[in-house]
Input
Amino acid sequence: MKRFWIALLIVICIVGVYAVTTYDVIYHNDVFRGESESWKGEYRINGWWLFTEKGNRIEFDGRVDGVLTLTYLKEVEKPPELDHFEIHYDLGSGGGSKIEDDVVMKQVYRFKRFSTGVPNKDAVLTAVINMDGDIQTVELVRIK
Output
């Protein structure tokens, strides 16, 4: 009988904690895609935001993971050797770059991001690729 009352007290405490705490969760699962003459790009976002109301204040927690994939479209027997290669990207909630000299270009480049930022639904994300002076821009738009 004593175990029953202890278990009941624990259940009441757990329910009480959830009764005074309210929260909202927003999930982010978006895909942005685009293509240029020689490149195609895709940016995938997966994550969540958690807003918890405690008393007079709202606390925030979250994690958003993003992967930008840029793929060279032209078929080549051997990868091009470049004197200068650059990729600059702006993902709406942050960006980055990769600069290499005297490099053998890869077919696929991946950039991973971990943050809490999410681009707007109508944002146009850009990646600018410079291969020995041949500059191409890939604009990525949200796929609905």
